[in-house]
Amino acid sequence: MLCWGNTSFGQLGLGGIDEEIVVEPRDCPFFKGKVVCEVGCGLRHTAFLLGDGSVYTCGCNDLGQLGHEKSRKKPEQVGALDAQNIVAVSCGEAHTLALNDNGQVFGWGLASDGQLGFTSVEECTRVPRNIKSLSEVQIAQVACGFRHSLALSKGGNVYSWGQNKYGQLGLGSDAKSMTSPNVIQSLLGIPFAQIAAGGAHSFALTLSGAVFGWGRNKFGQLGLNDNNDRHFPVLLKSLRSQRVVYIGCGEDHTAALTKEGGVFTFGAGGYGQLGHNSTNHEVNPRKVFELMGNVVTQIACGRQHTLALIPSSGKIDSFGLGGNGQLGTRSTCNRKSPAPVKGTWMLNNGPSGPSAALSDGGQCFCVKKIFAGGDQSFAHYSFSQNSILLDVRVPDPGKHIYTLNPSVIQRWLSHAQGRLPQEIAKIPYF
């Protein structure tokens, strides 16, 4: 695992190092030999999901966002989740959500706006607790905004809870902060592939690539050609023809990845985080032209910076705020257009073979997954070009809602008239 950016609270997991910022990718020794499936980045804390279903956290713990009382500077296991096989994590400003393999959601950290989904009124919860009001529902995905939370159920419903100051819950302008999950009624019956949450804005992406956004829109981060907040989900007509397959959200900006590997960004651009070689805000989705000619397979948004992975060259491009080293360019300057993250990168599945040694004795990294949030960035790597690369353009069945596949339909159609026998009626929908 490579990491770079702000580490003043220990959020990079590097232990008690002297530096407060790391300006180029550095190997995190803790993760040697471990498989990291997901990284959730809060404002000042980080959660790591390992391949064995365990969760480790590090960084600021003022509000219980680590879920343990151990060291803050290096990753420590969240012991309260020992009995759970966790499959997803997400971090807000100071709260954390974890999803287990049975579709149950656990939350901890700051609770002041109801973002943990508990009806109790504590300021914070320092130990992970199950969100009981979702226990009858199988959840497929969770996403944390700064002070609000979203969940997508296997049945296709989108739930929201927490702060609603800007309409980020999608429940209407009269809805105050919600302490328990509510179904967003206006999205009922739509088959969703992904949910995403920014500082105070939210998105849901359908299986067919339609994009719905709601919440704060001061900088145009909803991509609706204006700066008006939305209290109900609105369809982004401007992206309708682009076949969007993934949405990433920063504090006040948004990035969309298309099936062809193109990137569109919109919202706040004051630090260059949109990658358009300017500091203008964009109220409409605009293609990042400097990434054209490359097929991008992953994007990740930090608070005010953006990362893009280009497997054909093996490199990561970054742009936006750089003051805490989060761009990985060996500089603390902001970048208004994509610039390569420093490192010796190996292209994925390229012709040169899996050699990872350099003539100067250094190492060559084959990046598999990228993550960003707060002012920190991470890249999970392998020394082999032939290991599996995460491509968010390819659907992950484990994170999807129930869908009918062709073989199920064919078995139904081929059955004679009359009642379906149990062995056909109970076929899983995946």
TrEMBL record:
RCC repeats: 1-52, 53-102, 103-155, 156-208, 209-260, 261-312
One Pfam family named in its UniProt record: WD40_RLD
Domain of life: Eukaryota
Location of the RCC1-like domain: 2-347
Keyword entries, A-Z: Repeat
InterPro entries listed in its UniProt record: RCC1-like_dom, RCC1/BLIP-II, Reg_chr_condens, Signaling_Regulatory_Domain
PANTHER family: BTK-BINDING PROTEIN-RELATED
Protein name: RCC1-like domain-containing protein
Organism whose genome encodes this protein: Synaphobranchus kaupii
